[in-house]
Design brief:
Layout lengths: L1 H11 L2 H8 L17 H4 L11 E6 L5 E9 L2 E10 L9
Antiparallel strand pairs: 1-2, 2-3
Amino acid sequence: MFLQEIEAATRELDERTYRQEFQVRFEILTAGRNYFAFDRTKNVRQLSFDPRLPIFWTLDFNVNPMTSLIGQRDGNQVYCSTSWSCQNRPLGKHG
């Protein structure tokens, strides 16, 4: 079972997470870009809104940056149409 788990991890995890979890290397997973494995040439293509699919909106209230995405999901495929990232912006006082 352990060998199957490692093989699955090499397919499913990004390089940094794999090194940390399976090669016992210390990785700073929270530093740098929001999505460090993102490659515009591999991950971006022109799509149109599909009215048959539901719309989702995600918010990540991280300390810095805060990110938000709007997109659609079709089975295992996720299509993000818009994203925002705000750095060094206080959320303000509530309550």
